[in-house]
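A quick aside before the break. I want you to see a complete sequence-to-structure record at least once, exactly as it would be stored in a machine-readable document. Don't worry about memorizing anything.
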Amino acid sequence: MHDHDHHKETFDVHGMLLFGEDPLYFSHLPMFEHPAHRFQVLMEVDFRPDVRETVRRDLKAADGIHTFVPEAFDILDLDPAAGGGPARTAVAGTIHRGHFERGGTPIAEGVTARVARVALFERLDPGRHHDDGRPLTYVCFGRAGGLHLAHVITARPDFDQVLAVRIVPGTVRPGPGPQVPGNVPGEDFERPVPVTVGRLDMPRRRLVAGDMVEGSFFLGVSRTGSHGFTAQVEVVREIYMETGDLV
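That is the input. The structure line, written in tokens, reads:
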């Protein structure tokens, strides 16, 4: 049991973007202004079967976004780097069609999301100023046939963006350095992989639906150097885009 009195700044209602199909994902909706929400968090989640099917049908049928409003909890409980791993494996709350703070409609109340895996957990520094000259960088995650990119949030002012994408078959080319097994196109990207796309890191230069770009995928560094690959990435859909909460 975590001592929430010790983490008063991070105990709050942490709204989540809900997206995907198999699996489903939460992306924490970050804000620089509020200490509780200075975190970029991506996690794979699941619901009991009837709720899961309701969510998937609604995600396919409805335009716009879906969000999840959990009961208040300490977001530090999701940190996979904490001693012994994340302390929280489930969150209870309500699923909304639309943004829960902007006219969203509840479609499933009193449901519990099981946290299968926290894929990304980063604390944001409100004192840093954004470098518009840095490369536009995303993380790629998901499974074959259901890949996503999430923009890497670094410093204010910034933007939060999630995209549905696909790697164009036949375009994969080895990058510099040795190749290693795992995390290659056609397999699962369980661990988010950084991707740069040859643009500057600004909202107006972001990827949008229909874009086809060459992405440089960084798989890691070993004693013999960095390794990765390049591939053509097609943006299928922009799922979410927000700038106002990150100024």
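Two observations worth writing down. Confidence is low (pLDDT under 50) at residues 1-6. The longest strand covers residues 105-123. We'll return to this after the break.
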